[in-house]
Design brief:
about 20% strand; alpha+beta; single chain; 6-stranded mixed beta barrel
């Protein structure tokens, strides 16, 4: 133990002798480790933000979209053909045990008005289960009921953006809002959610009973989509398969024919949304790792120079009893010290850079503790790897030749 402490002291003394050169050598490690920490922090922050937005969709959600439609060679995409019906939604809720809630969905957009104010917004036709599925509580008032759905009552729940635009400074409850000239009474206002992953204002919408939107506004008999919720995440895949089989049976789709609908679960959506973020994080991390390797090459270069400069010193130490492994350990300790010190400073630089990015750009950053450990250990390994050859070269010097060296 005493020998190790003495070796470390000698190594630190040797590095302090050429302090400027030592700092410049460490700079490569500092930049490399700092870049790894900062890039991973930014990438993980983006991933966490996406996951948070996906979670705002609700828990254990399965989305069923109606088929696409082609008009004059133009594909409308999923939801355009109106191949889903309210009976399909009722069958899913009734016949699939793992489903706990279902909300048939109609989507539209258009101009709404209240008094002399008007606003263009999204219009959703849903069932009361929609607010449970999406985990979207009502902040003021209450949501509409199943009775409102059965009677196609003209009632609405609005987002905060609608309240701010049409009823600034006053309560929206009980106010009448016209949706394409059809009057709806506001019974509730939703808790604000902010922007979605795509940057869309989630609070810029009005939700009404799907029957009222179908019968009184759009005059349609089919659905655009169906929202379903399972009892647990483990049921997402089996329930998705059961919904697919049920709808193929109901729509009389024979073997080999394409579905006139598509089914997606929340897990698939989350994986798709975060895949690009993960790829970018690993790419940036890999680029930063190159800086670490360059820093390691710098350590090797300086250690070789140090061996050449201290050849006579090595000869004297060997002449008074130092063995080859003692010389090896000394120079290896110097290389590791350079790597570890650069790693520690690099971690601080990376954390600081991540914080600056988060403050100035309002981009969330998240640095996993294990990545700090990985970066630190990698810097130590780089020091060992690139310092071994110069240390070995020093340990193999011939004492007589070393003493003659000028």
């Amino acid at each position: 133990m005493n020998r190790i402490v003495a070796t470390i002291k000698v190594a630190v003394r040797a590095l302090r002798r050429n302090l400027l050169r030592t700092l410049l050598t460490m700079l490569g490690m500092i930049i490399g480790v700092g870049a790894v920490i900062a890039m991973v922090g930014i990438g993980n922050g983006a991933k966490a933000q996406i996951e948070s937005q996906i979670a705002s969709m609700g828990q254990n959600v399965i989305l069923v979209f109606s088929g696409s439609m082609t008009r004059s060679g133009i594909h409308t995409g999923w939801g355009g053909a109106g191949t889903l019906t309210t009976e399909d939604a009722e069958s899913i809720e009734r016949e699939i045990p793992g489903v706990t809630a279902v909300s048939p969905e109609i989507q539209s957009s258009g101009q709404i008005a209240a008094g002399n104010q008007n606003w263009f917004t999204r219009i959703l036709g849903e069932s009361p289960a929609y607010f449970e599925i999406r985990r979207w509580p009502v902040l003021l008032g209450a949501s509409f009921t199943e009775q409102d759905v059965r009677a196609a009552n003209k009632v609405a729940v609005i987002g905060k953006t609608i309240a701010d635009q049409l009823f600034p400074g006053e309560s929206p409850l009980g106010q009448v809002i016209r949706v394409r000239s059809v009057p709806f009474t506001i019974v509730g206002m939703l808790t604000p959610k902010g922007l979605s992953i795509q940057g869309q204002d989630q609070d810029d919408l009005i939700v009404v009973p799907y029957t009222a939107l179908m019968k009184r506004v759009q005059r349609v008999t089919t659905l655009r989509s169906i929202n379903a919720q399972t009892a647990s995440p483990t049921l997402l895949n089996p329930v998705q398969q059961q919904i697919t089989e049920l709808l193929r049976q109901r729509h009389r789709i024979t073997m080999g024919k394409d579905d006139d609908f598509t089914v997606r679960n929340q897990q698939e959506i989350a994986e798709t949304a975060t895949a690009q973020s993960k790829t970018m994080t690993w790419l940036l991390g890999a680029i930063a790792m190159v800086s670490l390797i360059v820093g390691g090459i710098g350590i090797m270069n300086i250690m070789l120079v140090s061996v050449t400069e201290r050849t006579r010193e090595i000869g004297i130490r060997m002449a008074i009893g130092a063995r080859g492994r003692d010389i090896l350990l000394q120079f290896l300790t110097e290389a590791v010290t350079l790597g570890v010190a650069g790693g520690l400073i690099g971690v601080a630089v990376g954390v600081g850079a991540s914080h600056i990015v988060a403050v100035n750009t309002r981009w969330p950053t998240l640095i996993p503790p294990e990545w700090v450990l990985y970066a630190f250990l990698f810097s130590a390994i780089v020091g060992i790897f690139f310092g071994f050859y110069p240390a070995r070269k020093a340990s193999r010097l011939d004492p007589i030749e070393a003493l003659r060296y000028e």
